[in-house]
Structures are given as C-alpha cells and as structure tokens.
Specification:
respiratory chain, 6-stranded mixed beta sheet, alpha/beta, Immunoglobulin-like, 397 residues, 3 domains
Length: 397
C-alpha cells in the first residue's frame, strides 16, 4: 500500500519541475528587498497562525469525549490572563506589520530613485543611471536607450551594479512590465508614463514578460534581460549600433502593428523625439500631441477656430493601426448647424468638388465640411453612405 502511495505522488512531484523560485532568489537589490518584505511579513503572521492551529489540534485531542481525565469546568467563562494573551499578541503583530509595510512602501516606491545598489553599498555620487524607455506593443516590447541612440525589440540589457531608470508607456491596451529578478511589476498604459528604478547585482540571463493579459499574443510577450559586466555591456551596445536600420516614425508605425512571437530586433539609430511622440500619441504626421492639446485646453481652448486640429484626432486605445479591435477612421462633414458650416465653407481657401447624396442631382447638391478639415477620400465608398453615420462612414452632425 505504501508503494502505491509513493507512485501516486510522483506526478505531483513532476509538476514542481515547472516552478521557478526567482522571486525568492532574485539578482537585483530592489527585488531582494521586496522578497525580504514578503518573507518577514509571512513569518510575523505565522507567529499567530501556527500556535492557533497547534492549539486547535491540542484542544480537540485533549478534551475529546473519550478522555475521562480532562478537566471539566462547565461554569468557566473568563480569564483575564488568557484575554491579555489572546488580544495583545495579535495586536503586536499588527503593529509590526503596519510599521514594516509603511517603511517598505516608501523605501520601495518604484518612482523613488535608488539610495543603494546593494546592502551596505550606497549609490556612488558619480554613478549615472541608465535611462531606458519602455513601450508595450501588441504583442512585443520595445526598449529605447536614449543615451546611446539605439533600440531593441524583445531584448533588454543593463550593466551590473548600475542604477536603471525606466520610463514606461504603452501603444494601446494596458500591459505590465515585469522582470522578477530585477524589481516588481509596473503597469504600462497608453497616453501615460509610469516609472521604475532598479539595479541588477549579478551577471546572467533573466526572463521578463507582461504580467497583465492583453489579448491573443499575450503569451508571447516575453523578453530576455541580460545582466552584463561593463565591458560586455559596451560590446552589446556596439552590436546594436552595428545593426541595420533606423527606428524613425515611419518604421515605428509598421512595428506597432500587432504581431505575435516576434524575434529579437535591434536598431542602430532612433529618432530622439520618438518616445515622447509615442507617449503623447502623436507619432503620425499632422497629429496634435496630447500635451499640446492639454496646453490649449488649459488656456481655454480654441473653440470653433480649432476644429481643424481637434477633429482628426483619435486617441481611443483600440483605434490603432491594424489593431484587432481597431475601427475604420470616421469623419465629420458638417459642424454644428448647416448655416455655420455653409459660412465656413464660403471662407474655405479652395472650393470642394460636390458629392451628391443618393437620390439627388449633382446640380443642386453641395458638400459641406468642418473648417479646415479636408474631405476624406470617398472614391471607394458608396454614395448612400453619406446619409449614414458610424465608424468608417461620414456623419452629419
């Protein structure tokens, strides 16, 4: 019977082969401090949990029905000493947990610059953090090194014992940037920037991935993080500079299209303004940046005079180039009232070719549009679509 039990347990032991204990044995100081916080908190809680579980078994055995030697006190209802033990011990544990959590929350704030590179080793005053811009794409990771002017896809590297400063954003849906050996996970969101500071203390190859489900290609959003010596990191940068191609805006718009299980790619040159354009969602030519729109709004907006700038904007996270859920572009051919639109049409610098709706003659119809907004290409669209509204169709509003 015992041999059968051992054989039955073997499949369960095989499942443990897939376990990865990198969280409990990280290679970065920030991740190590987070590990210590989890371990200490668990031990403090076990100081209460283990005695309670042990006493539960003890009382159940001690005062079982068949034990005639157990003390029987049906009128007992209070003990001051026992009450002090019952309430003071958990209270002390909660105080310790609260203090530990409060200090850890501030010391391990991902936005906080590092004060040390390892236990007992403060950051040298001459140390310059390695700047890395991170962009979560569908479904791959883009890393830009502004200091060196290179970029990589699904590959990240950093020198050992050098602080790393990450600026993180997303091109569309929300993801989570996570290298367990380096530091905790930080969300990447379109139109927003999050920060993370970390350091790697041991050379090696570690795994990074997205810890937030983001669609069909989510399982392939993995990348290699290389902890390198200074000499090896310089060599890695040299290899990146020797790669073919440059990452400009046109190349990025192609890279941004959803794809799965992408191989590692390197770019020898990067547009220095690309990351800010990605962050402000204005990579496409002629698109107003989000920070520019915020500045205009802060001054009261441009009103109807700014309609030419605001109408073409599309900041919804799904309407991206080639995205699975992306809608076709939508257009507004009239603004406010017909009279106002006609007045703006009269002030337009160039006349427009009339586009007749269904059932009307070309001699009596006149197309209208917003001030400054060019007429979309309707050559491949049905004329009766002018009477309808919705994604991918003109709308009269």
């Amino acid at each position: 019977m015992s041999r059968f039990r051992i054989i039955a347990v073997l499949p369960l032991l095989a499942l443990l082969g897939g376990c990865n204990f990198v969280v409990l044995a990280p290679a970065g100081d920030v991740a190590a401090q987070q590990r210590d916080l989890v371990v200490i908190s668990t031990i403090l809680m076990l100081l209460i949990i283990i005695p309670v579980m042990a006493l539960t078994v003890f009382f159940a055995w001690r005062y079982r029905h068949s034990n005639k030697e157990a003390r029987y006190e049906p009128d007992w209802d209070h003990s001051t000493g026992l009450e002090l033990v019952i309430w003071s011990a958990p209270l002390l544990i909660i105080i310790c947990l609260g203090a530990l959590t409060w200090m850890g929350t501030h010391l391990l704030d991902p936005y906080r610059q590092l004060g040390r590179i390892a236990a007992g080793r403060p950051v040298p005053q001459t140390a310059k953090p390695l700047e890395v811009n991170v962009v979560a794409l569908d479904w791959k990771w883009l890393f830009i090194y502004p200091e060196y002017g290179v970029a990589t896809v699904n590959e990240l590297a950093a020198p050992v014992d050098r602080p790393i400063s990450f600026r993180i954003t997303s091109s569309s849906v929300m993801n989570s940037f996570y290298v367990p050996a380096l530091a905790g996970q930080i969300y990447a969101m379109a139109g927003m920037q999050t920060r993370l500071h970390g350091v790697i203390n041991r050379p090696g190859r570690y795994q990074g991935f997205s810890a937030n489900y983001s669609g069909a290609g989510f399982s392939g959003m993995r990348f290699a993080f290389h902890g390198l010596t200074d000499a090896d990191f310089d060599g890695w940068i040299a290899q990146a500079k020797a790669a073919d191609g440059a990452l400009d805006r046109a190349t990025y718009l192609q890279l941004e299209r959803p794809s799965e299980n992408d191989p590692v790619r390197r770019y020898a040159n990067v547009d220095p303004k690309l990351f800010n354009a990605i962050l402000n969602m204005c990579v496409e030519p002629g698109k107003m940046c989000m920070n520019e729109m915020a500045a205009v709004d802060a001054k009261g907006g441009l009103g109807l005079a700014g309609i030419a700038n605001t109408l073409p904007l599309s900041y919804e996270k799904y309407a991206r180039r080639g995205a699975v859920f992306g809608a076709e572009p939508s257009y507004v051919l009239s603004v406010c009232t017909i009279e106002e639109a006609a007045a703006m049409q009269a002030r337009a610098p160039a006349p427009m070719t009339p586009v007749p709706p269904k059932g009307t003659s070309t001699s009596t119809s006149t197309a209208i549009r917003g001030a400054g907004l060019p007429l979309p290409d309707l050559s491949l669209r049905r004329l009766d679509s002018l009477l309808l509204s919705g994604p991918g169709r003109p709308s009269n509003s």
